[in-house]
Amino acid sequence: MSRPDPIISPAIITRVKEFGESDLLVTFFTRESGLQKGVAKGARRSLKRFVNCLDAFCLASLEYTPKKQRDLCFIHSGKLLEAHQGLRSEYGSFSRASFIVELAETLFPPGVSDPRVFDLLKDSLKALSDEGGNILIPITFEARAMAIGGYRINLEKCCICGRAYKGEGRAVFVREKGGISCLGCRQESALSPGMEPESIRALRQMQDNDLGQLKGLDLSGGCLKEIKNVLKLHREYRLEKRLKTAKFLD
Ligand SMILES: [Zn+2]
């Protein structure tokens, strides 16, 4: 039986666990194949083959033999590309990085890959590391990752009467429809919170653009709060679970 050839690919390490006597169990994202799990044999002994690259949130170049279906892949060696040191030195940055990684793993489990998510994750970890845990980064990550995962909030029209939203006046988030409605169709409440036009505009940009295109996105505290709350209601409703790390956004 022939084995597949090893491949070398940039990878974002999401989790590392001790495994057996001297091995590490490593979970990582690649651009082409999405989330994968593999064993780095002897990694706790070998200083040469994995120089400081098997740490959560690192970007590394991994050499590995792809697995068959659900088996663990075999990681031969790795080289550090970006340590994202800022994520280890500051608690706020570390906890927000933990949130985006958990959300990415939940939305894109093994077998469900999208190259845009790898790029988004890579850019977001770097930005969090460089910018000291800026709260805008996990919020933007969430809006965009949910949209790529098929859960884009429809902000173009009232999801009840169908009237186009022209960007004027408050609208209401309607959780069960994954959209917004006009005030005539739904009243504001805790589960159907209202949104300012500025929030709707910003959320639309976050859903549809890469992080790099959002430079200079300037949000008032009120809008950020509205968007964060809507995304939380949307996430919990669509994913039907609470993420362990979601508390780090507060
Ligand atoms: Zn309506």
Which terms summarize this structure?
single chain; 250 residues; alpha+beta; OB fold (Dihydrolipoamide Acetyltransferase, E2P); de novo design (two linked rop proteins); 2 domains; five-stranded mixed barrel; four-stranded mixed β-sheet; 6 helices; 9 strands; binds zinc ion
The name of the CATH superfamily of the largest domain reads: Recombination protein O, C-terminal domain
Please count the beta strands (DSSP E, at least 2 residues each): 9
The first-level CATH class name of the largest domain = Mainly Alpha
Question: How many strands, which pairing sense, and closed or not: the largest β-sheet?
Answer: 5 strands, mixed, barrel
Gross morphology is elongated
Would you tell me the overall average pLDDT?
93
Helix content: 25-40%
The number of helical elements comes to: 6
Number of domains: 2
Strand content: 15-25%
Low-confidence stretches: none
What does this structure look like?
This protein is α+β, with helices and mostly antiparallel strands. The protein has 2 domains: 7-82, OB fold (Dihydrolipoamide Acetyltransferase, E2P); 86-152 and 188-249, Recombination protein O, C-terminal domain (de novo design (two linked rop proteins)). The protein is 32% helix and 24% strand. The protein has 6 helices and 9 strands. Helix 2 runs antiparallel to helix 3 and helix 2 packs parallel to helix 4 (136-148). The longest helix is centred in the last third of the chain and has 19 residues, at 221-239. The protein is elongated and about 65 Å long. It starts with 6 loop residues before the first strand and ends in an 11-residue tail after the last helix. The model has no long low-confidence stretch (mean pLDDT 93). Bound molecules: zinc ion.
